[in-house]
Design goal:
Helix content: 55-70%
Strand content: under 5%
Structural class: mainly alpha
Distance between the termini: 149 Å
Shape: elongated
Order of helices and strands: HHHHHH
Oligomer: single chain
Radius of gyration: 40 Å
Number of strands: 0
């Protein structure tokens, strides 16, 4: 056994692995928040808040004020509130506010323009649909009026028929 241990000591040992520390730079991209991203976040938060308001609270949000002096961000948020309101003239007021932001030449309006354009398109569609609804209501009212008139004439004819006497039976005819 001693010989085996001596022989093992003379055998070649496996080569040693040398580990060296190597520095490698890994680029990490930090997301940059664009101003329009911030504007979108603000509008989405405002949307969530507005959905939870009661009609009374929403009415207070859209109370008349001097809309022409509002900063672009406030104008967009007010337009969004007006879109929730559904009162007469509110969609027109919202469209006016959004057009004001789209025409605003101040640098702070730049971040609000894409959102204002999106909402302006939605308001235009909403106004178009309200117009179609109004036309449909007018057609319905006209048809109802004509139906009522036809029913009155039918009742008048029935009354005339009753006043002339009942219908003759086949036995009464000469």
């Amino acid at each position: 056994m001693a010989v085996a241990l001596l022989a093992a000591g003379c055998a070649q040992q496996p080569p040693r692995t040398i580990v060296k520390e190597v520095r490698v730079e890994v680029p990490v991209q930090v997301p940059v928040v664009a101003p329009t991203d911030n504007a979108a976040r603000i509008v989405l938060n405002a949307n969530d808040r507005l959905r939870q308001l009661s009609p009374l609270e929403l009415g207070q949000e859209v109370a008349p004020r001097d809309d022409a002096t509002l900063p672009p961000g406030n104008a967009v948020q007010l337009a969004l509130a007006l879109m929730f309101s559904h009162n007469n003239g509110e969609t027109f007021r919202a469209q006016t506010l959004l057009d004001q932001v789209l025409r605003d030449a101040r640098p702070e309006a730049n971040e609000w323009r894409p959102i204002a354009q999106f909402l302006a398109d939605r308001v235009a569609e909403q106004r178009r649909m309200e117009g179609e609804l109004e036309k449909t209501k007018q057609v319905r009212d006209d048809l109802q009026r004509r139906l009522d008139e036809a029913n009155r004439k039918l009742e008048a004819l029935k009354a005339i028929e009753r006043s002339l006497g009942g219908p003759r039976s086949a036995l009464d005819k000469p």
